[in-house]
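Comment on the following before class.
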Amino acid sequence: VCLRLAVPTAAGRWSRFGLLPDEAPRVWRLLADAGVVVRGVHLGVGTLVRGPETYRAAMRLWRRTLRAWAAASAEPFVLNLGGGFPARRDTAEPRAPWREFASGVAEECRLIALPPEDVRLVIEPGRSLVEEHGVLVARVAVRKRRADGADLLVLDAGTNLARTVKSRAHPIEFVGAEPRSAGDVPLATEPFDLYGNNCYEEDVFARGVPGPASLAPGDLVVVGCVGAYDMPFAHVWVRPSPPILAPTDSGGHVVVRERGTRIR
């Protein structure tokens, strides 16, 4: 049995996930009286954590509890630091964070008198592994020219299929339907505001995205980093859900989910 302990949120409030400091001892005692030994804890510190300090702060906050419960456990104490690891594109150097996370957590264990060799460290790196391996492929449906600002590109997909574009920037690339470059002469570029196809004003993928000045209906738009939460969070609205495809080692693809047939 492991218990989840709450940590403060960025707003300074205790997270709704986990036991509070006044609750944890009472729960531990109830379990001990029932003959159940607490073998570890889970500290869910959030998401897109770009360095080890967030994890270290949570360990320091609960250091007395960690030491006491670890001492009462006959087995290596499970310290589950949860997920939150960023995708590679959110770091300056792809390999450095893993070393920094590991060394930082090990150092904090020593500082709070919890020897690393007595701890079974558990991490949940799922998002960092799959985030960059999913893309939303759409087409430009309409290009609406604006005299006083960036032209608008209305796509044939909406932000209901990539919901995290509302909270953080995603990489966006344009793929022309036909080559429009002249030899080594670079294509002219200009900024675009990208809108979805849903009938509400806030259906916006991004603003000021640079792209070829020759963009036209039919050109492909690739929204990256939708391989983690966006796929399961995507909901159907107005039109059927798109298919999900996965590449194969031979250069082909397999259908993970067929194109939907219903709009609700």
Remarks:
- The helical segments are 24-33, 53-61, 63-72, 96-111, 126-130, 230-233.
- The chain has two domains: 2-129, 134-257.
